[in-house]
Amino acid sequence: MAKYVGAAIGLIVLALGGWATIVGGGQPPAQAPVVSFHLEGAEPSIDALLDKFRAALEAKDKALLRSLRVNQREYLGVILPGSVDEGAPRASYNEQAQKYFWSILDTKSIYSEAGLLSSYGGRPLKLTNVEYRKGIKKYRDYTAYKQLTLTFDDGSPDPEHVRLGSIAEVDGQYKFISFVRD
Q1: pTM confidence score
Q2: Which stretch of DSSP H or E encloses residue 5?
Q3: What is the 3-state composition of the chain as percent helix, strand, coil, each rounded to the nearest 5?
Q4: Averaged confidence pLDDT in the chain
Q5: What is the CATH number of domain 40-176?
Q6: Where in the chain are the domains?
């Protein structure tokens, strides 16, 4: 009888070990790319995203501005685990690490949103130039357009240079990852 109990416990441990891998306790042996992840309220192009960004600033629309960047589900589902080189396995983080990384990104972006609205909100803005300080990088699950500098003509003698974080493109959809320039 003890021999059968021992064998049963061994099978349960093996089964639980496999389950831990499936739910994030380790890396599965093979992973398919995230090919159809839907970003909520995303734009079909960078130009459309930047036009909405400009409109949010002009209207001092905090809710619209916030909707232009990835939410917690999108960050934890695609951006964080997919921020590895193409072909590499998705990164795996425990719940505490996920909460920490999202909290840092979200909090810094909220403060950046307030600063953007305070500095540029309510003014007519015409976007005249877009630069990516760190270029464009293809990651496993998305493409990042890194560290934007937007030049706006606001009617003053000197153009406004707005420095922002990065934009993510996931399956032909575009949203800001963060408004924070690191």
Answers
A1: 0.78
A2: helix 2-22
A3: 45, 20, 40
A4: 83
A5: 3.10.450
A6: 40-176
